[in-house]
């Protein structure tokens, strides 16, 4: 059997003994996989009927590999919070530079990603995510005034960011 990745409290252990307080993979929804499967089958059929099974299999196989690669890369972004850092996609920032945290859902989240978005903000968004969290950045060297992170659980992510905050000096 595999080793339990949690520390017994439901938090995942990560590098150097630091415990993650929140972790979410921004994976694409099942409906996208169903639509992609239907598209691959359709491409196979419309190619195989006039050009043969081998041509259909080639076109369908290429489409399947491309969609698989695209979905796993696009949906592979991870949002994680531990006692030291916030990680969103490929970016990370120390918690000491985090200011006000605001969970957003519904119309507020849509507006935050649209009309109310600052062009200098750092964004990790996915069109299929219902919520977001806006995190103010207090680092004077950082050009981004805030991070806007798409999430399925804005209240849980905001709680992880405000709980056990690093004391700011």
Automatic annotation (TrEMBL):
<dbReference type="InterPro" id="IPR021443">
    <property type="entry name" value="DUF3093"/>
</dbReference>
<protein>
    <submittedName>
        <fullName>DUF3093 domain-containing protein</fullName>
    </submittedName>
</protein>
<feature type="transmembrane region" description="Helical">
    <location>
        <begin position="53"/>
        <end position="71"/>
    </location>
</feature>
<keyword id="KW-1133">Transmembrane helix</keyword>
<feature type="transmembrane region" description="Helical">
    <location>
        <begin position="30"/>
        <end position="47"/>
    </location>
</feature>
<keyword id="KW-0472">Membrane</keyword>
<dbReference type="Pfam" id="PF11292">
    <property type="entry name" value="DUF3093"/>
</dbReference>
<keyword id="KW-0812">Transmembrane</keyword>
